[in-house]
């Protein structure tokens, strides 16, 4: 039994990924075959990282579980952004903005919309806690405005970017808001973020599987750290191939940010849909909005620190089309969240906004 568990995919993949990273580093002169192998290991490392985050989440329970998943995914995203910016030079000035905005669109419209649709198709009407979800949405909207909207309109520095002091303010505000959200979600008003029944009462915990043992949790913590290191390192090796592939198919360079966001949020999406199928819609919404909050609240401070040695410009301000999409997403999300109940129509509306974002990202 012990040998079988040690030979499982979620143990072997991160180990193989870290070995491949050590062999291929620093990545000069990689052949097409090696690039493909590293890409497969990168995808596998992302999946195993979130798998082990799920194991830890199952041990600590909700809403801590959703928080663990969101932070794990965000660490991956930040690692990808920073490594691509370091290797890409001035051409990656908009990478952080494109990736964060893509993460917002994918989480608030993709994860939320797909979860609502799956839940409504299975149960007719889905129920969630409007108080907790509304607080999450308000935090997403505020963080998004501070980080991505205001730079478009500030005048201290020409172009859609912050001055050093403005960027520092946005970074500090992001950290404070994220810390306040975590405290509210896990300590002060934890019951706002727990699954509810159709009658509005807190639902009982799932009993579909026993929680992992302390030893299993410890192993998952170690393997999660290994997988995260592998993801960051392999992303640096794969960055030239990602940019070349985007150029080869004729997509705008900004689509690189969309690729990064889709890569790191795919496992999160799977986890949210699973929760929706178990009638745990609040968990799905915690995953979606929590990932958006973590994506902004943790990425902006790290990017602000990284600009000290990156040296190049950092364009954070959204363009006109993106501003319209962001505003429409916030309005539609408010209308979805306020009733505390949703049908397949709300899911389809959010998915339509995601489709519009993807289409306009390819055809700006």
From TrEMBL:
<dbReference type="GO" id="GO:0005886">
    <property type="term" value="C:plasma membrane"/>
</dbReference>
<feature type="domain" description="Sodium/calcium exchanger membrane region">
    <location>
        <begin position="220"/>
        <end position="361"/>
    </location>
</feature>
<feature type="transmembrane region" description="Helical">
    <location>
        <begin position="100"/>
        <end position="121"/>
    </location>
</feature>
<feature type="transmembrane region" description="Helical">
    <location>
        <begin position="7"/>
        <end position="25"/>
    </location>
</feature>
<feature type="transmembrane region" description="Helical">
    <location>
        <begin position="316"/>
        <end position="338"/>
    </location>
</feature>
<dbReference type="InterPro" id="IPR052946">
    <property type="entry name" value="Alkaline_pH_Ca-Antiporter"/>
</dbReference>
<keyword id="KW-0812">Transmembrane</keyword>
<feature type="transmembrane region" description="Helical">
    <location>
        <begin position="255"/>
        <end position="275"/>
    </location>
</feature>
<keyword id="KW-1133">Transmembrane helix</keyword>
<dbReference type="GO" id="GO:0015386">
    <property type="term" value="F:potassium:proton antiporter activity"/>
</dbReference>
<feature type="transmembrane region" description="Helical">
    <location>
        <begin position="345"/>
        <end position="362"/>
    </location>
</feature>
<dbReference type="GO" id="GO:0015385">
    <property type="term" value="F:sodium:proton antiporter activity"/>
</dbReference>
<feature type="domain" description="Sodium/calcium exchanger membrane region">
    <location>
        <begin position="31"/>
        <end position="186"/>
    </location>
</feature>
<dbReference type="Pfam" id="PF01699">
    <property type="entry name" value="Na_Ca_ex"/>
</dbReference>
<feature type="transmembrane region" description="Helical">
    <location>
        <begin position="287"/>
        <end position="310"/>
    </location>
</feature>
<keyword id="KW-0472">Membrane</keyword>
<dbReference type="InterPro" id="IPR004837">
    <property type="entry name" value="NaCa_Exmemb"/>
</dbReference>
<feature type="transmembrane region" description="Helical">
    <location>
        <begin position="217"/>
        <end position="235"/>
    </location>
</feature>
<feature type="transmembrane region" description="Helical">
    <location>
        <begin position="64"/>
        <end position="88"/>
    </location>
</feature>
<feature type="transmembrane region" description="Helical">
    <location>
        <begin position="31"/>
        <end position="52"/>
    </location>
</feature>
<feature type="transmembrane region" description="Helical">
    <location>
        <begin position="133"/>
        <end position="153"/>
    </location>
</feature>
<protein>
    <submittedName>
        <fullName>Ca2+:H+ antiporter</fullName>
    </submittedName>
</protein>
<feature type="transmembrane region" description="Helical">
    <location>
        <begin position="165"/>
        <end position="184"/>
    </location>
</feature>
